[in-house]
Structures are given as C-alpha cells and as structure tokens.
Amino acid sequence: MAVLTDEQTMLRDMAREWASNESPVTAWRKVRDANEAAGFDPAAFGTMAEMGWTGIIIPEAHGGSDFGWLSLGLVIEELGKTMTASPLAASAVAASAILLGGSDEQKSAYLPRIANGELVATLAVDEGGRHDPGKIAASVSGGKLSGEKAFVAEGDSAGLFVVAASDGLYLVEAGEGVSVSRRHLADFRSHAAVSFDGAPAAKLEAGGERLLDAVLDRAAVLAAAEMLGMAGQSFDTTLAYLKQRVQFGQVLATFQALQHRMANLFSEIELMRSAVEAGLAAIDRGGDTRAAASLAKAKANEVGHLMSRELIQLHGGIGMTDEYDAGFYLKRMRVVEQMWGNAAYHRERFARLSGF
Amino acid sequence: MATLATERPTTELDDFREEVRTFLAENFPPSLKGKDNAMSAVEGPTQETPEQAAWRKAMGAKGWGVPTWPKQYGGGGLNREQAKVLAEEMARAGAWNPIGGMGVMMFGPTLLEYGSEAQKQEHIPPIARGEIRWCQGYSEPNAGSDLANLQTFAEDRGDHYLVNGQKTWTSGGQWADKCFCLVRTDKTQKQGGITFLLMDMDAPGVEVKPIRMISGMSPFCETFFTDVKVPKENRVGEEGQGWTIGKRLLQHERTNLSGGGSAFRTAGVSLADIAKKYVGVDEQGRVADPDLRARIAKWEMDWRVFQLTAMRVMAESKAVGGVSEVSSILKTVGTKLGQERAELTIEIQGLQGLGWEGEGFSEAELTGVRAWLFGKATTIYGGSTEVQNNVIAKRILGMLDHQ
Fold first, then answer.
1. What is the pTM of this model?
2. Which residue in chain A is spatially nearest to B333 when comparing CA positions?
3. What pLDDT score does B43 carry?
4. Domains in chain A, ordered, with CATH?
C-alpha cells in the first residue's frame, strides 16, 4: 500500500465500508440476474455520486474535489473487490479527455454534470475486439462524425462519447446520428457497438498530439486498479477457503504444495500493487505517463490472469458452480484484461518507448 | 506519496553538505573512481592498494563508513537526513564506501542491539574503521535450511567454553579475523539450546579449508573447531538466546541480499543494449530477434516493478516505523530476477557468453560467466527461496503445518 494522506485513507476506508456493507457481491449477482444492457444499479451509482466519487479527478472549479488519480484508484480497487459495477471509471476517463483536451466552454458544459453523476460519459476508441488505437477508420467531415466503435464500455448508458477519429478526439452526445446496440460479453457488463452516422461532433482541440495516448493511459491504469481489487479479493477468498476445506483429514492450508503457490501469488499481487500505484502516481505527477501506464497494465494483466485461474483451480469443483462467486471474478478479469491492451500489447509498447 | 518534513533547519544541513564536500575533495582522489574492490566485502583490507587504504582510514576516522551508527562506538552518528546528504555527495564525487563486509551489514547492527557495553566498546570501533573482518559461523553440513539442527557443541568449562564441531559455507573464512558463531550449549532442546559466541579465527584448534565452487572461485570455506577455548565474555546474550539473536542477524542479511547481486545494477548497461550489439538490429533499429526482444522487455519491466516494490517497502517502513511485511518477498523476487538476467545475457551472447578464460573473450564476458555461476547461490543462501516461501505462508498468510 502506498503511503497515503489522511484524506486518502478516509476515502479508502469509506469505499471499503460502503462496498462491503452496501454493495457486496450479492448485489452484483442481482444485477447480473436482471441481465440488463446497462449492467449496473443506477441507485448504487447515485449513492457513489452523492459521496463525491464521480468528481474525484475533476477540479473544484468544475464541481469536483480534485483528489487525484491515486485516490480514484483506491475507490476503484475497493469496488473491484466486491464486483461493484458502475460507470465510475469510464466517466472519469472521458472527463480526463475533456480536462486535457477541451476548451473552457466544453469543460463548463460537461464536467460539472459528470462530477455530480448526472451524465455518464465514456471513451470510444477501438473498432474491433483487440485494442488497436493505431487503426482508426472513424472520420469527421464538416463537424459530422461517422464510423463504428466496438465494445464501448458503458456505451449502453452513456450520454456523452469521447470518440477517437482519424484526426483526433471528438465529443459526441448520444442522440442524433448515434445508435447503440448491446454486445453481451461473459462479464454481463455494458459493452456496446456504437454506430456514428454523421453525428454532430466537437473536437477536443487542446492537449496536443499525445492526447489520445494520455487518455488511454488513464483508462489502462484504472482498469489495472480494478484488477488489483479483484485479484486481492480472489486471493483472500482462496486463502480463507484453503484454511477451512478438509481433505485427507487435513486442512488444505497445511499442504506445502499449496502454501508455496499461495506464497507465490502473495508476492505477485504485491508486485502488481507496486506497478498499479506507480501508474496512478505517475498520472498525478503529470507529464509523460506512457511507460508507467504500460507497466501497470501489463503487470496487472499477468497477475490478474494467473490469480483468476488459480482462484478456480484451488477451489476445486465448487469454484466451477454459478452459485459460488469465483466465476464472476474469472469472467470480469478476462474482459478487463483485453480492454485497453493485453500484456503483449503493453510489453511491446514499453519496449518501443524504451528503444529496445 | 507524502514527503517527510526535515526536522533540522536547512542551513545546518547545508553546512554539513559543505563539510562532506570538503572532506571528499581532501580525501578521495579522483583516481580511485570506480576502483572499488568488488571482493572487499569479504576480503576486507587484504588486497587493497596504499591509496585505497588511505581512503579507508580517512572514512574510518570519520565513522562515515557506518554513517548512522552511534558516535561513541566509532560510527558517524548522523541522522537520516545527514546520511542522505553524505550518500548524495559521495555519489556525486564517484566515491565508494571502503568499509563493508559482514561486520557492517550483519554483525554490527546485531551487536549494537544485543551486545554488552564491553562487547560494543571492544568490537564496534574496529568494524567502523574497517580494520577487522568478520565471518559467519552458521551453516553446518547437516544444518542448512534447517539451521536450528546445528550440532557444533560448546561445553561449559567454568570461565570458558570448549568448542568442537564443523561449520560450512563460511563466507570469507580464509580472510576473516573473527567469527560470530551459533553453537549448541544444550542438547535437550533444539532452538532453545543455541548460543551466540564470538570466536578468534587464529585461536588454536580453528582450521579453515576453502571450498572450490562451480564458478572456479572459493569465496566459502569449511571451518573446523577442535577443542577451541572461548572465554565466556565472548558470549552475546544469555545461553540459549542464540536463536533469537541469530535470527535478528539474518533479517539484516536478507535486507542486504535482496538486491539479487549488485554487480549488474551498477553496470548500467541494459539487456537491450547488449542484445543490439550481439544480435544486431532490424531496419527499425529494434533488437533483431523479436522473441528475445519481447523477453528482454518483460525482464526489464519485471525489474522495474521490483524496484518500485523495494521503494514502496522503504516508504512504508518509514511511515509505520517498522519493517513492512512486503519486505519478505524482496529476496525471492530480486534473486530470481538476477538469475534470469544472467541467463538472458548468455542467450544473447551465445557461446561467446560462456568463455571460461583465455584469449578471445572480453573482461565483461568472462566476469559475466563467473557471475552467472556464482549467482546460483543467491536463491539458496540467506534462506533459500523454498524457506522464504515457507516463511511467507506461515508467518504472513497464517497457513499452518500438518496437525
């Protein structure tokens, strides 16, 4: 755990308490069973907004608290532990695009509404199932954007899209020229195919050439923070299970083969935590965040992947049942792993940035 | 990350910085830059040139080789901020610390904690001056990972002990002046029968035989004790307290070993640079072998994450005023990465990277081979990876033994 300020500790504790008391995995199970495209509970998201979480990275001048990315990461991690679904991360990433690239008018128009939770915003970059920001066909002419965006997170409930076109990022409001259809993935969260057909679009003119990179870095690091929460919870659940499950007349936790696997997972998750916290801290510091973000997402992908597989294996048959929660973590982990770049993508990006 | 406010006025720290600069200008000749004897940690003053000796004596007189040790025992008596300034200025001047070895890294801190006043007065100042080389008498042929199984026996003879037995893997035993040793004073209990003794390596009955290793080097010895008389004032703590004291010392050891071998950290050459030289580059300037390039990238990222973790442990320990539990993973992770780097280097260099001696190999290639072989020890000594995993599972995760 990074060394936190008093405010950050309070925020983390509040998020932990709320998630475990008000939004445990049973709450997610209800949302999952309801099987709606939006994939989250609007009442729970409303409470998050009341607690100020939707404005954590938004400056006070625009209705936020300006607590920073490490603070937001702490909340996302806690929510990840209990599988709490919400557009918190997607909206924050979209808000960061407006903060970094928007005009004063654009900031005033959207940021206060994102900060108070009234507006769900999201980033639409990829046009296929594999993250590939270098391959963007969507284009704008005469202020109208056309193109297809695939698997847009929270696309089913978004009122505002930050869309990557061939010449930069654009703001497009849901409505005219925008049609959204659900893509039902294994995690039961919102991933939408969004079709833009001459939709009115306003460019994010500031932020320079690296704007898309900077926004994707934020998306990747927040995804890594969610994975950290899921991995930590998966580890804790597995450890508790091994301590109570008896086979061969012995508690499983007494078997050295399992002890060493758990020791290895413990180490890996601690390493993952360092990478994720360093990614969040790099965003708070400002400047070039590319290497730190790729490091965070690559490590989170590797460890999250390993932990989600060990979660099932070490639970044995019960982990395979829908009645048990392990499957939720496996499915969500694999989805987030693919979002904003898998481990190979980020290793390649890191190698390129380092001149290897 | 919160930064701690400096407790002392800045001007006083500035004065200290000036003092350090003057001292370095007067005592560290630029010709000594990079002339740190890599073996000095175990050999101590054995191989040093007159210039190196003068530098060691100058640092020893200041106590700055052990900057935070108390002044009354020959240490620098510096606070944290001052020690940081000293390290910064030494790095700026390219100056290295000539005082090290087991006395500094492990024994000194332990004796400061557990030794009697007389023992501290006798043993700490020579360590601070870099005059006395200590070795560690812990492992035995049948007490490696199961250290508490040690059998070397110290028989109570009134005013002294009579010690008989054998130690092994005594690092630098052939150069050492003294040995801190775990011996058995009670055969009826395992951990509780162990006592911490200080022995002279030139005492009658002490015999040392260097062990030739796969690296061709002999940094370790077998040490035999036959009827060695050890005065009782050389016992640290009480009889039976040796396990507690000995384990505390191991904590210092693990902290120091976690770097996974410092040789490659100071080299400053990235694996990718080595690969570009040996493997070549493609038309875009990338390492020509894409599979190797991907694995190099993965190693460099893992190493970066390890460094971030080491920094996090330091920051956390400082914040909570104790050792962070994450520190327990540093040794296993750091040593594994060190070995992986050595293996990758060989893969990059091919047979050119496996030279033993003679013509046709660069100094770096030959040193690399010996370091690769010696590095295999890092996951075995100081608590093997398997023992560390036991410790993590039992102490941190609370996973119990068979009932």
1. 0.86
2. A267
3. 52
4. 6-88+105-115 (1.10.540.10), 121-203 (2.40.110.10), 211-354 (1.20.140.10)
Name the 3-class secondary structure at B69: coil
What are the C-alpha distances in Å from A135 to residues A194, A256, B230, B252?
17, 48, 77, 53
User: Greater confidence, A276 or B367?
Assistant: A276
Contact between A73 and A284 under an 8 Å Cβ cutoff? The reply is: no
Q: Do residues A218 and A69 lie in contact, with contact meaning Cβ atoms separated by under 8 Å?
A: yes
Residue holding tokens 């990718």?
B272
Residues of chain B with pLDDT > 70, as a percent, come to 91
What average pLDDT score do residues A263-288 get?
A: 97
Helix (H, G, I), strand (E, B) or coil at B166: strand
| CB–CB contact B308 A275 (8 Å) | yes
Best of B270, B284, B309, B313 to disrupt the A interface by mutation (most A CBs within 10 Å)?
A: B309
Rounded CA separation B327/B310 (Å): 8
Residue A177, min C-alpha distance to chain B (Å): 42
Rounded to the nearest angstrom, the minimum Cα separation between A263 and chain B is 5
pLDDT tens for each residue of A176-205: 999 999 999 999 999 999 999 999 999 999
Express each pLDDT in A204-238 by its tens digit.
999 889 999 999 999 999 999 999 999 999 999 99
Q: What is the ipTM of this complex?
A: 0.94
pLDDT at B219: 84
Is B122 in the active site?
no
Tens digits of residue pLDDT in A126-152: 999 999 999 999 999 999 999 999 999
Tokens read off for B19: 């003092």
Residue ranges and CATH numbers for the domains of chain B are 13-100 (no CATH), 134-241 (2.40.110.10), 258-396 (1.20.140.10)
Give the whole-angstrom CA distance, residue A169 versus residue A264: 42
Interface contact flag, B393 A260, Cβ < 8 Å? yes
Identify which of A5, A262, A298 has the shortest CB distance to residue B399: A262
Catalytic annotation, pick one of B43, B89, B253, B340: B253
Any A CB within 8 A of B312 CB: yes
Question: What string of DSSP letters covers B311-356?
Answer: HHHHHHHHHHTS--GGGGGHHHHHHHHHHHHHHHHHHHHGGGGG--
B321 pLDDT band (50/70/90 cuts)?
confident
CA dist B184 and B191 (Å) reads 9
